[in-house]
Amino acid sequence: MIKVVLAGQPNCGKSTIFNLVSGIHQHIANYPGVTVDKKIGRFSYHGEKIEMVDLPGTYSFSSYSLEERVAKRFIYEETPDIILNIVDASNLKRNLYLTFQLLEIGIPVVVVLNMMDVATRRGIEIDPEKMQALLGCPVVRASGSKGEGGEGIMQALLETYHVKAQYVPFRMDYENLEPFIQEIHNTIVPKESALNQRWLALKVLENDETIIEKLSVTEAQRAEVEACEARFHSISGKDSAAFFALHRYEAAGLIFHQCANVNKLQGETLSDKVDHFILNRWLAFPILLLIMFLVYKLSIVGGYKLTDYTWPILAAFKNFVIESVPSPDLIYVPLFTDLAIWMVNSANALMNYIPVFFILFAMIAIMEDVGYMPRLAFILDRVFKKFGLHGQSTLPLVLGGAMVGGCAVPGVMSTKGIADERARMATILAVPYMNCLAKVPFYTLILGSFFKEEMGLMMFYISTVTLFVALIVSKLLTSTVLRTKETAPFVMELPPYHLPTFKGVVIKAAQRVWVYIKKVVSIVLAVAVVLFALLQFPGLSETSKEAFELKLIDALSRFDATAQTTAYYESVNSREKVSALLNAYDSYKAKRMLSSSSESAQKVDEVFKQKLEKGFVLLKPGKDAEAKSINTALVQLSNARKEILRSMKNEKIENSFLGMVGRSMEPLTQFAGFDWKINVAFLSSFAARESAVATLGSLYENNKADSMRAEEAMYANSGYTPLHAVAILIFMILTPPCIATMIVVKMQFNSYKWMLFAIFFPIGLGVFFSTFIFSFGTAAGWSGVEAMSYFYAFIVLSALILGLLPQRGHAWTGGFRNRA
Amino acid sequence: MYLNELKKGQKCTLVKIHASGKLRQKLLDMGFIFGADIEVVREAPLYDPMELRIHNYLISLRRTEAGMLEVEAV
Q: What pLDDT score does A618 carry?
């Protein structure tokens, strides 16, 4: 198998080349211990098996950002056969800087001149043959976005692989530095190393931590290197790092001048022209808002509409599961059936978001590929910097729901690109404060119950306060627990705009959705099992079981009384027969609900006709008067059964372990105005926020058959005042959205410690604020709106004060001109 | 003079980097080497960071970091 590693600068079109040659047989692997992805593609070409690894884009191999560490570790641990270096032909000189560093590693390099079309358009002519001769390695032309050059690349790879044995390692002459390189080579680099020893010596002299660790250089040897460095400095007046950079840039310049011809006068490029608008002082913000609005509209709103089409698929899946598990015997639902339905419901609640996510991820991919992301960071960096965040934090916050109704999962996932470690961690911890889509039904329930008049104002408070909370929290965290974390300078390229390829966008979006499905859904399901057990056990007491049985018998005898008078009595004269008919009726109802057209409804009829034969007439009586009366009784029985099941469920929840926990928390949470029902709703909704509404809804139903809406029922039966409602709202605003978010937080931090922090810090904050507002509000006699207004004013003021506080000059101290 | 003192449209060459450690290495890798030509393309809408052209590509730098680059105006 030929091991090929793909390396290149960011924005050089590496991924398009990867997609071009590898097809889509690829998977993403997280490098152990690091949150940077590397993509692996396995395929064969002319009978040779090839494994291609796409490393993260790097500008250099000498500074040690996260991406570079991953890339370097891969090269010395896996020792690939060939390095495929993708070079942006329209920016040759700059890209050659990395090429020289790759050549020095000592592994054969194949250079791919990508984006030849762009280069030609700009009047840049490149002579690959000359370059090939000068660099001593194959140089191939390609245009990834147009799908050109794949064959050439693969051929060059194979040819290079077959003559690999004859490869003479590339060597760059560093003139005055040479004696020192030799010295390090002789004293520090182990003789048995599989990697190019000269490269290792260079790396040691460059003070490359990754390699120094790898070679286990001792303290004494480090001192030796420093002495070398000092002597070089006294001879040449330069330090080795600057010397290396200068030398490599000079070499790149040399190659550029010998191999490239610029015919056209470099006027304004299209990118420059676009930037006049996108980065214009007055237009930048309106355009940014417009783009954000579009992303939000298309993904959240449009994606949600799409779920109208995908939901029937999920519902059909649910029906399929329900039919495959043992059916209930009247009010006695087998535990396994209960569990299966619960699991399907939990999974469906999350799978329902897939269209939203797919569109969202596709939009992000487009913005990334076009080159808007760094511009976004450029525009907003100043604002976010004040709060310890980074310009690149904008997108995660917007996706998380800066404009009511996002989702924290893609928000947290999109923090991956933030270069500044401290700002990245702060962003991950800030995103969950944004208003997620699934919290909105809960807000509407509470607002509909207690703030019918002031709904607009309250909704404004809710949707805007979160951004301020997030800013405050990140400011607090970055100046306390995250203070010691590494920060990175804001040195960011603004790449030329590129049209994204359709294939590239779809692949990127699909991969991210797949990661979501795999990691999130699997873990959420595990949590769902635990929640199920906590809600199910210990179950009903014997006495209440008997009471429910009596109710059932009552309903059954009413049905029996009607049935007896008809000719169909024979088919419903036993409890088993009634139970079977009832289940058939419910399943028939569910199927008919799902069929949208009259043909599909007819099909459902056909199926049931075949299955039930004589019984079908009881489900759909038509003009048969006797069957009709049984049918009416059946509907009543079905309703009675649902009612009993609902009461059983409520009682079960009340007596369950989770219910007990909710009750045991009452002494504490009562200061925030929460009773056990709210506690249980919050606890159970942690798997998915949607279930908070469902839980509350079923808890507040008064067990009488009436047509009260959930809002009315809550208002009438809970005994809450609007002040209670405000406390509940504040708690909901501050607590993290769901377990899925916490899983991605864990993925991004790669640490359970931080995940627990991300769970308990906001909950602590929520408990504090709702307790404070409720207790104070009760004492001072505030109305609900007053309490919320004070809370809002307090948060906004705090954010403003924090933002206006003078900050430390910069994140950097030391150096020759220390201004810290 | 220092790079952060330059206005939009001004050009200069780099004389010295007054930064150390990782920032210095990062700047070197991005092409901030002795004698490199730098042009201030524009400032961000909120005046910080600034956008520069160096080696025929665009890069953005916060003012605090630009203040560590000693330059000579052209």
A: 65
Q: Comparing C-alpha atoms, which of A77, A104, A68, A83 is closest to residue A209?
A: A68
- Residue A725 to residue A717: CA distance in whole angstroms: 14
Distance from CA of B47 to the nearest CA of A (A): 8
Distance CA(A364)–CA(A512), nearest Å, equals 11
The shortest CB-CB distance from B45 to any of A60, A379, A495 is to A379
**Which of B8, B22, B28 to mutate against chain A (most A CBs within 10 Å)?**
B28
Task: For B2, name the nearest residue in chain A, comparing CA atoms only.
Answer: A817
| Cα distance between the two ends of chain B | 12
Q: For residues A163 and A290, what is the distance between their CA atoms, to the nearest angstrom? A: 55
Residues of B in contact with A816 (CB under 8 A): 16, 18, 20
Q: Would you call B33 and A374 a contact, using CB atoms and an 8 Å cutoff? A: no
User: Among partner residues B19, B56, B57, which is closest to A812 by beta-carbon distance?
Assistant: B19
Question: How many angstroms separate the CA atoms of A317 and A311, rounded?
Answer: 10
Contact A6, A55 (CB under 8 A): yes
Q: Do A284 and B45 touch (CB under 8 A)?
A: yes
What domains are there in chain B, each with its CATH number?
Answer: 3-73 (2.30.30.90)
From the centroid of its chain, how far is CA A68?
23
**Percent of chain B at pLDDT above 70?**
100
Q: Summarize chain A as % helix, strand, coil (round to 5).
A: 70, 5, 25
Beta strand spans in A696-785 (E): none
| Probe site for chain B from A494, A497, A498 (most B CB atoms < 10 A) | A494
Residue of chain A with shortest Cα separation from B50? A378
A12 is in an annotated binding site: yes
Tell me which DSSP letter residue A538 carries.
S
Residue B55 burial (C-beta neighbours within 10 Å; 0-12, 13-18, 19+): buried
Cβ pair B49:A97 closer than 8 A: no
Q: Nearest CA of chain B to the CA of A210: how many Å?
A: 14
- What are the backbone dihedrals phi and psi of residue A39, each rounded to the nearest 5 degrees, phi first? -95, 140
Assigned architecture for domain A2-262: 3-Layer(aba) Sandwich (3.40)
CA–CA distance, A397 with A420 (Å, rounded to integer) = 16
Q: Do the chains contact at A94 and B64, CB–CB below 8 Å?
A: no
* Interface touch A241/B55, C-beta < 8 Å: no
- Predicted structure pTM score: 0.82
Residues shown for chain B: 74
Say yes or no for a CB contact (<8 Å) between A378 and B44.
yes
What b/e readout covers A387-420, taking b as 16+ CB neighbours within 10 angstroms?
bbbbbbbbbbbbbbbbbbbbbbbbbbbbbbebbb
ipTM value, please give it: 0.96
Examine the pLDDT at B14 and tell me if it is beyond 60. yes
At A210, list the tokens: 């990754």
Q: What is the pLDDT of residue A818?
A: 41
Cβ within 8 Å, pair A490-B62: yes
Q: Is A15 annotated as a binding residue?
A: yes
Which of A62, A381, A817 comes nearest B29 by C-beta?
A62
Q: Cβ–Cβ of A64/B22 closer than 8 Å?
A: yes
* Parts of chain A with a pLDDT under 50: 32-33, 705, 809, 818-820
pLDDT value at position A153? 93
Considering only the beta carbons, identify the residue of A241, A282, A814 that sits closest to B28.
A241
Geometric angle at alpha carbon A265, from A260 and A271, rounded to 5°: 95
Q: Where are the domains of chain A?
A: 2-262, 521-537+662-798, 542-651
Contact by Cβ (8 Å): A235, B19: no
- Please list, residue by residue across A340-367, b when 16 or more beta carbons sit within 10 angstroms of its beta carbon and e when fewer do: bebebbbbbbbbbbbbbbbbbbbbbbbb
